[in-house]
Write a structure and sequence with these properties.
There is one protein chain. By secondary structure, the protein is of the alpha+beta class. It folds into two domains: about 1-65, no CATH class; about 70-94, no CATH class. The chain contains three helices and two strands. The protein has a two-stranded parallel sheet. Strand 1, helix 2 (about 30-40) and strand 2 form a beta-alpha-beta unit. The longest helix is centred in the C-terminal third of the chain and has 15 residues, at about 80-94. The radius of gyration is 16 Å and the shape is globular. The structure holds flavin-adenine dinucleotide.
Amino acid sequence: MSASAEAPRGRRTRGASSSPADVTVIGGGIVGLATARSLLKAGVGAVRLLEKEASVAQHQSTHNSGVLHAGLQYHPGSEKARLARSGIHAMISF
Ligand SMILES: Cc1cc2nc3c(=O)[nH]c(=O)nc-3n(C[C@H](O)[C@H](O)[C@H](O)COP(=O)(O)OP(=O)(O)OC[C@H]3O[C@@H](n4cnc5c(N)ncnc54)[C@H](O)[C@@H]3O)c2cc1C
């Protein structure tokens, strides 16, 4: 698949190339970068990250309040509450 050929308004998506990839992650914010890192660590093969800006993390991921949410607003025992708590530990250890 050539993502660059499908990019809107004639823009070439950064990272696009003709080299093969086993997995393509679109978007170089914290979610895309963390996903790509996890995939590489899991040994899935070649991972391609496509980012439309000149460098990664140009949007929300570098324009937030930096708060690690404790999940207090979520229903006790819910998946969101559990993930919020485990996410804090994962972020601190990272
Ligand atoms: C004002 C504000 C304050 C916040 N405060 C907090 C906080 O205190 N604590 C907290 O946990 N969260 C906070 N958040 C939320 C948090 O920042 C976001 O949930 C998180 O950064 C989202 O990451 P992301 O990777 O999904 O998105 P982004 O960081 O926006 O990354 C998306 C990336 O995808 C790229 N992209 C988009 N379309 C394409 C395309 N077609 N092809 C290639 N690349 C593309 C963009 O250029 C961008 O680099 C805040 C958000 C905002 C806006």
